[in-house]
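Sample intake — Aconitase
Collected from: Sedimentibacter saalensis
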Amino acid sequence: MGKNMTRKIIEDHYVSGSLVAGEEVAIKIDHTLTHDVTGTPAYLSFETLGIPKVKTERSVSYIDHNMLYADNKNPDDHIYLQTVAKKYGIYLSKAGNGICHTVHFERFSRPGITLLGSDSHTPTGGAVGALAIGAGGLDVALAMAGEPTYLKMPFVVNVNLHGKLRPGVSAKDVILEMLRRETVKGGIGKVYEYTGEGVASISVRDRSTITNMGAEMGATTSLFPSDEIVHEFFINEQREQDWIKLGPDEDAEYDEVIDIDLDKIEPLVAMPDMPDNVTEARNLKNIKINQVFIGSCTNASYTDFAKAAVIVDGKVAHSEVSFVVAPGSRQMYLMLLRDGIIGKLVAAGARIIECGCGACCGIGQAPSTDGVSLRTSNRNFKGRGGHLNAKLYLSSPEVAAASAITGYITDPRDFYDVEMLENIIEPDDFIVDDRLIIPPAEDGADVEVVRGPNIRPMPINDPLPETLNAKVSAVRGDNITTDDITPANAQFSALRSNIPEISKFCYGRIDPGFHDRCKTLGQSIIVGGENYGQGSSREHAALAPMYLGVKAIIAKSMARIHKNNLVNYGVLPLLFENQEDYDSIEMMDELEVENIAEQIQTRKVTVKNITKNTSFKTKVDLTDREISIIIAGGQLRYVANKNK
Ligand code: F3S
């Protein structure tokens, strides 16, 4: 049998382990990327490893998330990132150059490489045939240090695309359809490989919308073949030398096949508060909106804005709608300016925000109290827009643009002659200008790393005790997101390099007493429902609880990146063997695990509930290596012990 793309790339980068789906494999990483929020802790961790220069082919540090200079914190962090990059052989993409995922596939990525990024939307790079995986900052720090990356060998799903999208329907609707079918946890442990005759009608930018939001299904990554369309893109990026043809073998083997008829897809919208809560835009025509945001690493391409501009041309945004626009990269921003597209959007009342994440993660442009925001971004969890009292809907730029004018969620086909959108394609004459990408020093030995007062050393966990006795500091429901644990808003993310301060916000939005309770308890255990820790890769969601003394999380199921982050920081992730046991636990119950090190080796851990005088069984879904890391007290201690 032939090989799929995932298998080919993993075999090319194989270091050790098993190539059987579900088992652990270690691979070599070619590229890494970080952004300013996850990058600061990643580089603080990298510095503790004492390595003079990164060992990857290319590592890039992006400044794209929090660019609000309201006090010294962000500008100080940006100087830290710039100097640490210069010293250790890392390229630095300055604030204003664009969103990490967009810029990386425009200017650095290439088909067939492995890319590890400290952001859950790193899979965006699958649009050009790179195996691009999101991870915690510490994993990225270790990859920069030349350590292999460990992952579960994925199950590979072939998404077979038939036909062609109709006018007014876009790539965003394809991935919303996937989410409707697969749900937010349907992709766990899987790679989605898109093939079929329908692939040829989808541009690289539109492919990146689909690979980007594969993260919302919990997938390890998503991949498109590197075909003539990708070749053309590399020619336009003036990087033809980086292109290779890459695709699955004709008779490639897959674990599962999904068929999608592109002609049958409708304009879709994800309703609050989950990206898989999807319905047709036409079903929501009575929903009045207060804000429209076109931007983010999902939908901020040239054609996204060109189509939006055609739809709003000559009209003006509804009087009660704040119309916000943020191009994904400086390259596209310059092209949109050159071609008069930004002018049309401004004429229609759009507020142009700098290239970056901004509104997508609640850094600026928060909706009003109880406001309804329609966004082209990828996440609509409660609070993602900056506060809990807003309702976030997700759609394509076409739906967003039509809705900005009408003031209600609008299917573009009911508003505009969408046949006109058919001819809108990205022009060939890209503007290529890398002057906002700062290369590292040839020899970084003499470069001084500048640290502002908000940059504090990384806390390091203690080794696992023999017996864990701790009270339950929280019992959480299903689908707790990393945004629930540590929000991504401006105030929070400005404290990213200061764990003692950031821990004050841990769970603050849904449980204001959490920080003080943990401090009083000294050490504690969190109990969670299904899909605990889904969403963003934010490792602060593991770091802050660890700093507050959380020793273990016992959940019904757990999101992959969050589980990795917990392991990295020495917090024990346990899964209920019988889910009904979840109901027997209450906050402040005293739990005890004896001989933990011995028990976790057997992959079964018995937890005594001292308060209730009962006990229950949990499973340990960890490899031998991960168990050693947990016992050591986390990766930093583990790697230090290994290198002694
Ligand atoms: Fe940024 Fe939002 Fe993407 S925070 S990296 S634009 S998911």
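Post-analysis note: Residues 65, 99-101, 119, 121, 296-297, 357, 360-361, 377-378 surround FE3-S4 cluster (CB under 6 Å).
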